[in-house]
Amino acid sequence: MAIRYHYARLSRIELLRPELGLWGGVMLLLSTLFMSSAKFSADLPIVRLPSSMERCSRGISEVQLILSLDMHRRLSMHASTSELQTKAIELLAQNYGLQFSSEQRQQLQQLPYLGSDVRQLPVWLATSGWQRKKLSSGIPYSAPNDQLTALLQVANRAGYAIHGHPAIVCLRLDARLPASVVMPFLHQIQQQGVNRFVLVAEAEQVRYAPASGY
Question: Which UniProt keywords apply (predicted)?
Fold first, then answer.
């Protein structure tokens, strides 16, 4: 199945309507402005995407910062290019007083995604093989260690530094997450001035019943 992108603009009023159901409040905010795509790597965290019957027609920027929130509420980040992802991680790490060596930066370029506290990266880079898979606790995104806010604050800087324009924020949100998790997460993103983003959905295949004969 193809992956559909939907451009959404958050509304503080609509997002405060729990009677709309799990994804109802979000889906009301969507407009079909972007093309379908299936570029996401199999190495990414497993997320069951919400489905959509919409057909999107307009392409989106190739400069993307993608945030995934799985059913266990673990947050991860990857980008459309390894250069953008590496730059975003470096800028995020600088907020916590971390500097990477040239060798570590080369290793970062092979990182499929950031899925843990950025402060654990030096330890992660020093390990090898299967041991690296243990670091999958997710990027912390609540006080007192809110690294999501810090990441969103450096996203545009990374986009300009590598590609000359800001990165589009894409969200891969597991459809099994309750609204009590999804809505505060979206509000947290909005508080950083990100009022327009791309919600990734899996397109349903339309099945037609055979026409009856005469």
Answer: Membrane, Transmembrane, Transmembrane helix
Which ranges in 95-192 belong to alpha helices (H)?
102-108, 121-126, 147-163, 179-190
Residue 212 lies in a domain: no
Please list the alpha-helical segments (H only) found in 114-178. Answer: 121-126, 147-163
Looking at residue 191, what DSSP letter applies? T
Residue 5 pLDDT exceeds 70: no
Distance of CA 186 to the CA centre of its chain: 11
Phi, psi of 144 (to 5 degrees): -90, 5
Partnered with residue 3 across adjacent β-strands are: 37, 202
Asked, for residue 138, whether it belongs to a domain, the answer is: yes
Model confidence pTM above 0.85: no
Range of the domain at 166: 3-203
Alpha-carbon span 116 to 114, nearest angstrom: 6
* C-beta separation of 198 from 52 below 8 A: no
| Nearest Cα residue to 141 out of 164, 106, 176, 114 | 114
Q: How many domains does the chain have?
A: 1
Q: How far is CA 70 from CA 81, 132, 179, in A?
A: 22, 19, 14
Q: Tell me if 213 is assigned to some domain.
A: no
* CA 189/CA 88 separation, integer angstroms: 16
* Closest of 197, 194, 177 to residue 50, by C-alpha: 177
**DSSP bridge partners of 196:** 9
Question: What tens digit of pLDDT does each residue of 179-213 get?
Answer: 999 999 999 999 999 888 888 877 654 443 444 33
